[in-house]
Amino acid sequence: MPALDDLDLETLDFGSVEPVEFARIVRGTPNRQITELMSGEQRRRVLDEVFGRMHTLFKPDAAAGKDALIRWRITAGDGGEDDVYETHIGGGTCTVTPERTDREPQLSLTMAAPEFLRLVSGNASGPTLFFTRKLKVKGDIRLAGGLTYYFDIPKP
Q1: Domain SCP2 spans what residues (predicted)?
Q2: N or C: more exposed end of the chain, with fewer CB within 10 A?
């Protein structure tokens, strides 16, 4: 495993990085560097990889009986276009749509890319991001509060 300082985030194959290693990389990378990465060409690839793995980290037993659509808006911050993904939890599965649909979500979450990466890697908590106004929540606040229980989020 290379030292964090030796990693070139622009060329790193995020598809080959295990969740615990991803959490370690995010934890050890300065916010400025994450912001630069997520403002560049790798942004969509990193987001696609994170959302593409959600179903593998999903805990169906924890979400038993839930049927919810969550819309994630990852803001560009540089005047570019925001990225929107939707996750549907229901029937013991988690499916991801890599775009906004016409469906009405029970919950919408909006945050910048660095905060999103810290949240999904276990390096930040949703309530802390919310109370520091780095995460905007619209809709079912109880669903937002329980969302982390439905996924096996790495412990960095």
Answers
A1: 69-145
A2: N
The two tokens of residue 142 are: 């109880």
Going by pLDDT thresholds of 50, 70 and 90, the confidence category of residue 4 is very low
Residues 6+ apart with CB under 8 A from 112: 35, 74, 75, 77, 134
Local structure of residue 39 (DSSP, 8 states): T
pLDDT at 63 over 50: yes
Pairing of strands 93-97, 83-90: antiparallel
What domains does the chain contain, in order, with CATH numbers?
Answer: 4-150 (3.30.1050.10)
Q: Which residue has the higher pLDDT, 24 or 83?
A: 83
Q: What is the DSSP letter of 123?
A: S
CB atoms under 10 Å from CB of 94, counted, come to 21
Strands 67-75 and 107-112, sheet pairing: parallel
Band of the pLDDT at 5, cuts 50, 70, 90? very low
How far lies 88's CA from each of 34, 47, 68, 145, 156, in Å?
27, 17, 6, 16, 26
